[in-house]
Amino acid sequence: MLKVAILGGSGYTGLELLRILARHKGVEVGSVTSRQYSGKRIPEVFPCLRGYYDNLKFTEPSGFPGMDAELFFLSLPHGASQEVAPKLLKGGKRIVDLSADFRLKDPRVYEKWYGRHKSKGLLKYAVYGLPELFREEIKTASLVANPGCYPTSALLALAPFFNGDLRGVIDAGSIIIDSKSGVSGAGRAPTLETSFVEISEGFRAYKVASHRHTPEMEEVLKGLSGKNITLTFTPHLLPVARGILTTVYAGIKKPVKTAALLKYYKDYYRGEPFVRVCGDGTLPDIRFVRGSNYCDIGLEVDERTKRVIIISAIDNLVKGASGQAVQNMNIMSGFDEQEALNAPPV
Amino acid sequence: MLKVAILGGSGYTGLELLRILARHKGVEVGSVTSRQYSGKRIPEVFPCLRGYYDNLKFTEPSGFPGMDAELFFLSLPHGASQEVAPKLLKGGKRIVDLSADFRLKDPRVYEKWYGRHKSKGLLKYAVYGLPELFREEIKTASLVANPGCYPTSALLALAPFFNGDLRGVIDAGSIIIDSKSGVSGAGRAPTLETSFVEISEGFRAYKVASHRHTPEMEEVLKGLSGKNITLTFTPHLLPVARGILTTVYAGIKKPVKTAALLKYYKDYYRGEPFVRVCGDGTLPDIRFVRGSNYCDIGLEVDERTKRVIIISAIDNLVKGASGQAVQNMNIMSGFDEQEALNAPPV
Amino acid sequence: MLKVAILGGSGYTGLELLRILARHKGVEVGSVTSRQYSGKRIPEVFPCLRGYYDNLKFTEPSGFPGMDAELFFLSLPHGASQEVAPKLLKGGKRIVDLSADFRLKDPRVYEKWYGRHKSKGLLKYAVYGLPELFREEIKTASLVANPGCYPTSALLALAPFFNGDLRGVIDAGSIIIDSKSGVSGAGRAPTLETSFVEISEGFRAYKVASHRHTPEMEEVLKGLSGKNITLTFTPHLLPVARGILTTVYAGIKKPVKTAALLKYYKDYYRGEPFVRVCGDGTLPDIRFVRGSNYCDIGLEVDERTKRVIIISAIDNLVKGASGQAVQNMNIMSGFDEQEALNAPPV
Amino acid sequence: MLKVAILGGSGYTGLELLRILARHKGVEVGSVTSRQYSGKRIPEVFPCLRGYYDNLKFTEPSGFPGMDAELFFLSLPHGASQEVAPKLLKGGKRIVDLSADFRLKDPRVYEKWYGRHKSKGLLKYAVYGLPELFREEIKTASLVANPGCYPTSALLALAPFFNGDLRGVIDAGSIIIDSKSGVSGAGRAPTLETSFVEISEGFRAYKVASHRHTPEMEEVLKGLSGKNITLTFTPHLLPVARGILTTVYAGIKKPVKTAALLKYYKDYYRGEPFVRVCGDGTLPDIRFVRGSNYCDIGLEVDERTKRVIIISAIDNLVKGASGQAVQNMNIMSGFDEQEALNAPPV
After folding, report:
1. Mean of the pLDDT values across residues B234-245?
2. Which residue of D has its CA nearest to A302?
């Protein structure tokens, strides 16, 4: 049994890690930290987990509990992983970090969007945990930076145009990413903006042209293509708990047909256990991936305007966070990549 | 591998059977019938199941397909199981019937609430598939009548008062059952009443004092207690897809305390894998059982008015239908009772 | 023009008062207080009111602003109206208090459920602002206690059995009130319990047998009937922003028919502008009163169990709070009772 | 009193017309037709309107009822207005047509997207009923084509760039319109696609690059600018009953600042009663216009990518349909343009 620890386990990504790992045959959750709930048993905080972890209590994060664990999931607030990671790595631990702390490689880009970084040296060392693109590097990584939810949905939608035969088909300067996310992406801390009455029957954009996931997408695409990429990204807030639908627009430079692109996408993602390319005429819906680790992708060429519209759907808490974190752990630890993740959506 | 067939597999209970059985290690779904979708592959109709059953097609129900199956799930409209069941039983097949056709034992009660029955003789023969009350009978049954969703939630809430030390504590004539159900309980056929705009932001009662699940509850309680029971049942329609919360009111004839009753309930359901009794001060929420086979139960004594209020929560499509059907199949076929059902709620 | 002030105007009842009064032809809102938003213009806090009150700013509550107003709406937290009311009344102001501070007449009952009261002497003096029952008293009242949302829905459902020809038809000791409310009833302050993700797709009971609206209902019914009434009340939380549906159960002591009761209810409420009695076979839905000051009422006799089930629907923020407050103001100030309230539900 | 008739009054646009006109001081609804509900009184079909139109019955559409009316609202299915309009116009009636039949001026464009038109000659004659752009023409029009819901939201967002000082600032070939609509836009006829369970907790795009509102937007923008415009339009389906949020992307050819654009928009729409331009840093939300005739507009310049993102919000049933139809009627008939439409959002 692989012993794991979850640092910062009382938010929605912590809850999802616990939910998913409850079904994992090769993993034991040794400790879960939470400043707020320290001393409480897991099901007291998350009644849906009654019957699971009945004897596991949240522990104080101070004093590095759980050091008997081999692998650590970091579900800490922004900036905290930078402090914890160096010590864990020195102790020979492996890390899947769910924060944004290690997702960017270029310290200047990090500091422009996020501010000062306390462990700059680790940025290059961290592996970007999108298995469909970086599976080999993940296998041997000590520090995996679990991708942001929006970048996961956008990068899987765009990747086939960036590292294969379709290179050069789209105009890289024309990319527009219009994303719509469920509210759980905003975290579990109560705010007026995410209260039921303020969200219910509403819909709006936020952080237009200024969301911090923008440079994350740009840097990965630059890494794939070798060229600087600048893109427009607009996130919106859906009145649902879970799910991200991303609609990507890009100008096409060569005539292509919808059916041919779909066939290419199917080939590109053949063998990937968690990417499902839709058939011609069908499109993703966040409902069809709910609770699962799938990313569904569909597309349509607009021949009138010479653009391709690519649409992807994920569950922001699963493929967009904790499910992908477990997928990374499975790859790092030699488990079947689908272990604990192979259930149909609900 | 146990080969099973699903007759009438294109509704929500059919979809849930397919979703749950996809994870079952000992079962193979040999055929699924659907008049409407005959010839289509499962994921064409249920895109959430893409990657599962990719090569299984819905077949025409006529001509008894799937006769190589050993066990049949009947998800047919009201009245249809009566026609199919005798032939299947003659062929040596075992049946879990998700309709109301075989839930009542007394033909007169059936005919009063439902009309004429075409296989009256089978009524006594059928076993009521609520494992927490009738596990032994289910083991050897050929024909299991899977309980209605409302009765499942109400009977598990009330049973401890009817067949154990608490007998006589409540006034059986005072029982009022106020239930609230998600919309999927109304089935998948499109109607104005269940369209999004007519349900969204709404809430209402329906079939007040006239819902057909009433005699089903009364008959089971009569069976447990040996006395005629008449109760008031009011179903309501919640603006959610899944879940039933049932609030039961009953007058108490002897002084009892909340804590003592909870302790009794915990003892009563000890060892039951799918009933979770809430601790003192906590109450069930349909959100905490969503997608799972659990029935959560809590209660409170109102000492001012000498009543007990018992509250239970289930997912109407899982413990209230397809999950319980798989639980019954597991019991009938000697599988681990939790097989394919042991995942935490989403 | 009647000048009014709103003390504590930044919650949902404050917002609703502003929304409704924007259409009132005889009223000018002179000042609105808010500690949190002091100095901000109304539409900065409530963007839906852009174009209305564009030049009105929230003011600090200290120092009794708005003393040029003749009538005060108090939308203050529990306990605060007790401190403010005596000073306003001394200044000759009239008050509609939306808090619970003056709803109960008996100080002992108040202190049992709420704790110490700072202006006990005013309790008897305050008029309970349910116009359908106390219109005459409201006309000349200086201090109107606007009813709680749950009591409004329950009392309008029950009143015809308590002060007219139907007296004695129901067993007063048998009354059970099962209510379901939208989340706005919990107020605007952000909490984990009312955050979108914790409410969405959920449904649960809360404060079972212990909600403070219980004695309010009991006292009004006692006032109507002259007898002590003890009832069971269970509130539930619906995943919608607005609306209360209340299902009332009561044993009947004499044989009555649904149609006869409905006819009686229609007669009883004839001329009432905001009570709509449903026809036979139709039932209230919170969707049909949304945004309006209506209370819709339907009922059904369960002849098998000798009970009547009465169902009422209101918008908790309108008839359950701010709409009723404006209705009271209209009555107190000699306006048409329907002024600013006569729009169909949305 | 202006007597009006509603042909096809049993859908959501019919219901909204009735709701809005109930408050109109100068209008009497003389007749409402409905094949399905002929003979029923309005509140029997729409219980929310109980207390309004209690004595008005739906009538059979055949035989041209309501010919004593002066103005006709046509809420008929696609293609039906073409047959009715010529006869009404010959009879001297004035028409506000809520269908797509007369929105396009160019018969070839109509036939490409919709098929054959039975009253081609009337296309040029009809006035496009977007008051903010065509108020003068509407005043004297006999046949007003009420705009589509998506075009209303997109055209009000884009118009300032097309007929004033900002001409030439955006690259007309770069326009992408990403819209998200509530489900009521799909009409009231029950379908599987719009049933509660299929929509709830879901979100998806539909008719990507092929929706019939595309040529409507293109033709109006061409009319304003004198140039052919080709744009990409992607509609999505939100799990809410009402509201459209449209996110428009366009490349900018000259350096402009967000604040300067907002100031220009405010000037451009100054005096318009139903367009509200958001302040810097605030953005529209469909919740803030719900139930009202407002169109809220905000924008942001993405200086990194040289694009402007314009966001507008309307209630698809009000400004996107029936509210705008009443606004057009008010203009045509000399009423105050805001009559019956001047209430704050709910």
Report:
1. 98
2. D209
Q: How many CB atoms lie within 10 A of CB C281?
A: 10
Residue D62's pLDDT band (cuts 50, 70, 90): confident
Cα(B271)–Cα(C26) distance, rounded to whole angstroms?
Answer: 68
**Encoded tokens for B195:** 């369209």
CB contact under 8 A, A204 and D300: no
Q: Does C149 qualify as catalytic in the annotation?
A: yes
Among D1, D6, D29, smallest CA distance to D96 is for D6
- Averaged over C318-336, what is the pLDDT? 98
Kindly give the interhelix angle for C12-21 and C323-333, rounded to the nearest 10 degrees: 50
C-alpha span between C284 and C294 (Å, rounded): 11
Q: Alpha helices of chain A — where are they, by DSSP H?
A: 12-21, 42-45, 80-90, 107-113, 131-140, 149-158, 196-199, 213-225, 258-268, 323-333
Nearest chain B residue to D239, by CA: B196
**D151-316: CATH, from 3.40.710.10, 3.30.360.10, 3.40.50.720, 3.10.50.40:** 3.30.360.10
Which residues, other chains included, contact A115 with Cβ-Cβ below 8 Å and sequence gap of 6+? Answer: none
**Predicted confidence (pLDDT) at residue C156 exceeds the cutoff of 70:** yes
Domain D2-147+319-333 classification at class level? alpha beta
pLDDT of residue D64: 65
The first and second tokens of residue C222, run together, are 């006692």
Q: What's the pLDDT score for residue B281?
A: 79
- Judged against a pLDDT cut of 90, whether residue B280 lies above it is answered with no
Alpha carbon of D339: minimum distance to chain C alpha carbons (Å): 12
**How does B36-59 read in b/e, with b if 16+ C-beta sit within 10 Å?**
ebeeebbbbbbbbbbbbbeebbbb
Please state, for a pLDDT cut of 70, what percent of chain D lies above it: 99
Sketch the domain layout of chain A as residue ranges: 2-147+319-333, 151-316
The contact set of D with A (CB < 8 A) is 176, 178, 180, 198, 201-206, 208-209, 230-232, 234, 236, 238-243, 245, 247, 249, 283-287, 290, 300-305, 307, 309, 311, 313
CB contact (8 A) between residue A48 and residue B287: yes
Instruction: Classify C29 as helix, strand or coil.
Output: strand
Q: Which of A110-119, B298-307, C60-69, C91-100 has the lowest mean pLDDT?
A: C60-69
The string of DSSP letters for A331-343 reads HHHTS-TTTTT--
Express as a percent the part of chain C with pLDDT over 90.
95
Question: Which are the contacts of A120, defined by CB distance < 8 A and separation ≥ 6?
Answer: A107, A110
Residues written for chain C: 346
Whether the pLDDT of residue B329 is over 80: the answer is: yes
B66, pLDDT greater than 80: no
Low-confidence ranges of chain A (pLDDT < 50): none
The percentage of residues in chain D with a pLDDT greater than 90, rounded to a whole number, is 95
In this complex, do D190 and B194 lie within 8 Å of one another by their Cβ atoms?
yes
HSE, CB side, 13 Å, CA atoms: give it for residue D297. 30
Burial C307-340 (b: 16+ CB within 10 A, else e): bbbbbbbbbbbbbbbbbbbbbbbbbbbebebebb
Shortest Cα–Cα distance, C343 to chain D (Å): 7
CA C139/CA D222 separation, integer angstroms: 61
User: Which backbone phi and psi does D314 adopt, to 5 degrees?
Assistant: -135, 165
Kindly determine whether residue A48 and residue B345, on different chains, have CB atoms separated by under 8 Å: yes
Q: What's the ipTM?
A: 0.97
Residue B64 has pLDDT above 90, yes or no: no
Which pLDDT belongs to residue C64? 65
CA–CA gap between residue A174 and residue D249 (Å, rounded):
11
Strand partners of residue A195:
C195
Helices (H), D226-286: 258-268
